[in-house]
Amino acid sequence: MVEGSEKEDFFEGYKGRLNFEGDTLRVLILGNSFSGDATAYLKEVADGAELDRNRFCVYNGMISGGGLAEWLETLESGTERSIYRMAGAIKMNVAGPLKDVLNQPWDVCVILQNSDASYKWYGFENNLPKLIEAIRSNCPNPQLQLAYMLPWTHTAKATETEWKGNISCAKKIASDYGVKVLPVGTAVQNARNQGLDNGMYLTRDNWHMCNGVGKFVATCALYEGLLSTFAKRSILDNPVIYELTPEEADARGAMAVDSSNERICKQCAFWAAEKPFETTTGQ
User: What does pTM read for this prediction?
Assistant: First the structure.
């Protein structure tokens, strides 16, 4: 545990990127609909970085409205959950109980908290250490890295208190448990501060990211934090522009990614990785 002045030193220059430079990268996300939004376009963004699909995989597990407590209960009870490969071509066995899924050479495991609980530490204090221990004890890779995906605030609840709580909890996770923070929520807050708006604060329902810009910002941030070091290519050097399908474009709140906003989306993701715990309005 980092204390006092040591904590200030710990966060001096802290970056929201995993430092992974191995030959292959296997990522498991124990997530919810927010990680679903942040991986929605990950295949396209990784392809834009010319990342060899045969060298990596990113799987996303889904518990609707779930967080640390629900994934811990899933692990302890042997319940099966839906886990999908979102990017990369390496195949992992994701059928069966979570203990069996974890019993493979994953390199990174990303955890999420339910966004309603992400700014209140009491939702972490018991579940976080237990979940970390359970993940590490079931995964055979002693070099497994753990990461936490920082969420964004809701439209109806985007209060200063909520965002400060998100940051406070994320900092404690990083300093007290050595878990790398992937600042997806910071990138979304940056985008909102830059004036990107679909009339619903970049959401489609006051909680989840809208098709197009909302999901693109979240995905760019996850790429920058999770894959950019491995790919040796920043999101700023990635030429990808996600094109909405007609069905996506017709959905509520959709906001197309185009030449007027594509660079801003990527810049917001890059800024977040550079300063995970600060929102940026421009530089």
Answer: 0.96
Relative orientation angle of helices 184-193 and 213-226, to the nearest 10 degrees: 140
116-136 in b/e form (b: 16+ CB < 10 A) is: ebbbeeebbeebbeebbebbe
Q: Which residues of 56-86 are buried (b: 16+ CB within 10 A; e: fewer)?
A: bbbbbbbbeebbbbbbbebbeeeeebebebb
Locate 190 and state its tokens. 């940056």
Beta carbons of 26 and 92 less than 8 angstroms apart:
yes
Q: 92: which 2 tokens?
A: 């992992």
Residues 6+ apart with CB under 8 A from 267: 236
Under-50 pLDDT residues of the chain: none
What does the H/E/C string look like for 17-28?
CCCCCCCCEEEE
Token pair belonging to 197: 């708006």
